[in-house]
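Q: Structure tokens for this one, please.
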Amino acid sequence: MSISEVNKCWAEQTVEAAEASLSELQDATSKVSARLLPDLRQEIEPELLSEVSIVLAAGNANMAKVMANQATITGQQKRKKPEKESEGRRKRSTRSNA
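A: Here is the predicted structure, written as tokens:
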């Protein structure tokens, strides 16, 4: 048997072992999740979920206001810059004309 044949055989066995291990891990995870899920559902109180939803909604609304304000400020700054540049040009041109 050549070295490449040994490497190929080793690689195939390693892949098969990894696939088997992964399959076992997935099975174990699904079994544990299935057992824990009902317990977790019972522990979460509906009032807590509604409070969290309210807080998240308020946070999203505040973030939207902040972003709108930033966009307004950025727009105003962009509009002011060309005015200042044109004023500087006017001053220079009036000096050169004088």
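A few notes: The chain has a mean pLDDT of 76. The first helix runs from residue 3 to 43.
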